[in-house]
Design a protein that fits this description.
single chain
């Protein structure tokens, strides 16, 4: 389990992450949390 922290994310970034989340939900039959999408996006950027 990860560490819980509080951050402020810009509205434009939240919108893009929600769009990515919606796409992942449509592509699969499983639940996709906002946290999961955020973590995957951060991991891809940090590589």
């Amino acid at each position: 389990m990860g560490k819980r922290i509080t951050v402020v994310i810009g509205d434009d970034i939240v919108r893009k992450l929600r769009e990515r989340q919606a796409k992942k939900i449509k592509e699969s039959s499983e639940a996709v949390s906002f946290s999961r999408v955020l973590n995957e996006s951060l991991r891809n950027c940090i590589k």
